[in-house]
C-alpha cells in the first residue's frame, strides 16, 4: 500500500474541519449577503432604537470634529473642514453598527485602508492606527464581535489583525511597526469582551426561552387537569342518566306488559337515540381525557355527504322534515363539518322550540358562497327554553369561514340562514 492510498489521519481530519469552519466564518465576515448579521433582534420604530442611532451618530460626529480640528488642522496634512468630510464614513459605520454590525465593520475596514492615501503623513511617526482612529475602530469591532457566533467573532478579530498588518506594510508614510503587537493586544481584548457579551446575551435568550417553555408546559398540564375534571363530571352525571334512559326504554315492553305497536316503536327509537348520544358522549370524554388534541382532529368528521343520513334519521324519529341538498360540487372538509353542525343544531332548535312543526332545510351554492337555510313553522308543542349556546356556537363556526349567520322570526316560525365563503375568509 502506497502513502497516497492511506486514509487521512484523525489529526488531518480535524485540521481540515477547522479550516472549513474558519473559511465559512471568514466568508461570513467578508460578505454575508442581505440577511441580518446581528445576534440581537432589531425592533424598527422603537424609541430605544432611535435613541441608540442618535447616540452613536453624535459620538461619531464629536470624534470626527475633534480629530479634524486637533489633528488635521494644519497645512501638512489637510484643512480641518475637508478632513471632517473625510471622516464621515467612520460616522456612517457607527450609524450602522447596532443594526448591521458586520456591514459597519466592512465599511470601517475599507476606509481605514483608503484614508492614509487621502491625507498627509502624521508628525511624528505613529503606530499603525492613530488614537482618534481607535475611537472609531473599538466600538465597531466590539459590536461586530458581539453580534455573531463565536466563529464569526474570532474571524472579525483575525481579519482586524490582518488589516493592521496590511496597513503596516502598505501605508504611504512610515509606521512604527514595534507598536503592532500592542495593537493586536487591543483587538484581542475588544474581541474577547464582545464574545463575552454575546455569550451572556445567548444565555439570557436561552433562559427566557426555557421560562416560556416551562410556563407553556404548566399551562398545558393545567388544561389537561381541567379537561379530566370536566370529563369525570360529565361521566358521573350525564352518562349515568343517558344509560338509565336507554335501559328504561329498552326494558319498558317487558316491565309494562302489552303495549301498542307504535308505543314500542317510539320507545325503541328513544332507546336508540339515547345509545347513540351515549356513544357520542363517550367519544367526547375520550377527547377530553386525551393529551393529544390532534388525534381528535384526525378522526373522521361528518360533512355534507352525511346530511341525507342526518335528515333521514330525523324523519324516522318522527320529525316533519323536507330538504333540498345541492352543494354544487365538493366542499372542503372543515366547511362541510360546519354545514353539518348548522343543520344538526337547526333541527335540534326546531324540536326544542317548535315541536311538531314542519322543518325545511336547504343547502345550495351561489357563486363562491354556500347558503344553508333551516326554517320551521309554528310548533304545536310547548316551547322549551334553552341556554342560548347553540346559536353562539354556530355563529363562531360561521365566522371562522368568513361567513354570516342570521337567526330571525319569520311570521310565526323561525329561520336560520348561514352564508359561508367556500374559499375561506376573504
From TrEMBL:
Keywords of this entry: ATP-binding, Kinase, Membrane, Nucleotide-binding, Phosphoprotein, Transferase, Transmembrane, Transmembrane helix, Two-component regulatory system
Domain Signal transduction histidine kinase subgroup 3 dimerisation and phosphoacceptor, residue spans: 226-291
Keyword Transmembrane helix in record: yes
Domain of life where this protein originates: Bacteria
InterPro entries: HATPase_C_sf (IPR036890), Sensor_HK_TwoCompSys (IPR050482), Sig_transdc_His_kin_sub3_dim/P (IPR011712)
A single GO molecular function term of this UniProt record: protein dimerization activity
Pfam families assigned: HisKA_3
A GO CC term assigned to this protein in UniProt: membrane
TM helices/strands, residue ranges: 51-72, 78-97, 104-123, 179-199
Protein name: histidine kinase
Catalytic activity reported: ATP + protein L-histidine = ADP + protein N-phospho-L-histidine
EC identifiers of the protein: 2.7.13.3
SUPFAM superfamilies: ATPase domain of HSP90 chaperone/DNA topoisomerase II/histidine kinase (SSF55874)
Amino acid at each position: 500500500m502506497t502513502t497516497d492510498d492511506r486514509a487521512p489521519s484523525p489529526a488531518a481530519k480535524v485540521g481540515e474541519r477547522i479550516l472549513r469552519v474558519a473559511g465559512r466564518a471568514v466568508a461570513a465576515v467578508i460578505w454575508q449577503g442581505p440577511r441580518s448579521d446581528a445576534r440581537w433582534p432589531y425592533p424598527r420604530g422603537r424609541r430605544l432604537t432611535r435613541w441608540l442611532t442618535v447616540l452613536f451618530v453624535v459620538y461619531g460626529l464629536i470624534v470626527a470634529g475633534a480629530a479634524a480640528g486637533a489633528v488635521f488642522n494644519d497645512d501638512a496634512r489637510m484643512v480641518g473642514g475637508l478632513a471632517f468630510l473625510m471622516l464621515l464614513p467612520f460616522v456612517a459605520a457607527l450609524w450602522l453598527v447596532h443594526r448591521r454590525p458586520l456591514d459597519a465593520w466592512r465599511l470601517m475596514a475599507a476606509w481605514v485602508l483608503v484614508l492614509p492615501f487621502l491625507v498627509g503623513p502624521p508628525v511624528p511617526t505613529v503606530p499603525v492606527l492613530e488614537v482618534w482612529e481607535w475611537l472609531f475602530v473599538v466600538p465597531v469591532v466590539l459590536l461586530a464581535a458581539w453580534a455573531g457566533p463565536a466563529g464569526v467573532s474570532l474571524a472579525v478579530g483575525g481579519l482586524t489583525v490582518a488589516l493592521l498588518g496590511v496597513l503596516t506594510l502598505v501605508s504611504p508614510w512610515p509606521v512604527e511597526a514595534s507598536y503592532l503587537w500592542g495593537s493586536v493586544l487591543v483587538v484581542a481584548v475588544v474581541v474577547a469582551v464582545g464574545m463575552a457579551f454575546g455569550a451572556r446575551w445567548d444565555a439570557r435568550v436561552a433562559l427566557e426561552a426555557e421560562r416560556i417553555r416551562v410556563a407553556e408546559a404548566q399551562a398545558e398540564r393545567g388544561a389537561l387537569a381541567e379537561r379530566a375534571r370536566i370529563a369525570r363530571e360529565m361521566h358521573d352525571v350525564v352518562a349515568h342518566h343517558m344509560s338509565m334512559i336507554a335501559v328504561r326504554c329498552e326494558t319498558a315492553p317487558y316491565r309494562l306488559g302489552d303495549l301498542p305497536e307504535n308505543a314500542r316503536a317510539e320507545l325503541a327509537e328513544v332507546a336508540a337515540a339515547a345509545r347513540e348520544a351515549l356513544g357520542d358522549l363517550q367519544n367526547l370524554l375520550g377527547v377530553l381525557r386525551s393529551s393529544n388534541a390532534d388525534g381528535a382532529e384526525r378522526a373522521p368528521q361528518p360533512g355534507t355527504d352525511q346530511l341525507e343520513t342526518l335528515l333521514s334519521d330525523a324523519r324516522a324519529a318522527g320529525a316533519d322534515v323536507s330538504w333540498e341538498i345541492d352543494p354544487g360540487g365538493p366542499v372542503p372538509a372543515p366547511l362541510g363539518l360546519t354545514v353539518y353542525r348548522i343543520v344538526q343544531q337547526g333541527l335540534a332548535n326546531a324540536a326544542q322550540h317548535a315541536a311538531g312543526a314542519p322543518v325545511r332545510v336547504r343547502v345550495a351554492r351561489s357563486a363562491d358562497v354556500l347558503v344553508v337555510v333551516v326554517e320551521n313553522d309554528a310548533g304545536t308543542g310547548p316551547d322549551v327554553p334553552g341556554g342560548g349556546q347553540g346559536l353562539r356556537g354556530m355563529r363562531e363556526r360561521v365566522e371562522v369561514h368568513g361567513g354570516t349567520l342570521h337567526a330571525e322570526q319569520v311570521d310565526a316560525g323561525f329561520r336560520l340562514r348561514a352564508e359561508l365563503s367556500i374559499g375561506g375568509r376573504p
